[in-house]
Design brief:
Length: about 180
Amino acid sequence: MSNLRLLNQFTISTPANKIAITNVFSADYEVYCIQFFGTSAGTQRENNSFDMRLINSSGQEVSQSIYHSKMLMYRGVSSDPIEVGGENRDDFAIFYHDTTAQDGITNCTMWIFNPFASDKFTYQFQQTSGHMSYTGTTKIPTFTKGIGVLNQQSSITGYSFTNRDSYTIATGTFKTFGLRVDS
């Protein structure tokens, strides 16, 4: 029998450029689920987004260009996806969101594998769903699918999300679960 155990929950009360969740990964779990609900941007701009970095056991963001990730984003205005990411990035591929004034909202489920193990790579895959209306007036659906790896074997204890170009993440609830496997 397996189940998810809630390890951390954070709800934005004041808009911030960066959301950091520290000391949440440990030797107790190998697989984690990160979910966020109702995120929106504080300031509107075209292709508004926020990025994810991992936090090492020294409490520092891993900011070297050692993230490899790809994400496909679909917007209801086109049947062609936008491809984001690549090798040697300094973060995982983006999560798109708009302001609530532009009908923007994003929800995500992400799986993280082996973050705490110092002898393994940390992998992630995610999918998001939401809606936006920038720059039009009609609400349109958005969704993404993405994968990534931190190309370094190191102990990771947390993660952060940063809105690009110093803008803020205005709303949202972030939850971290550990996947417990009972024998």
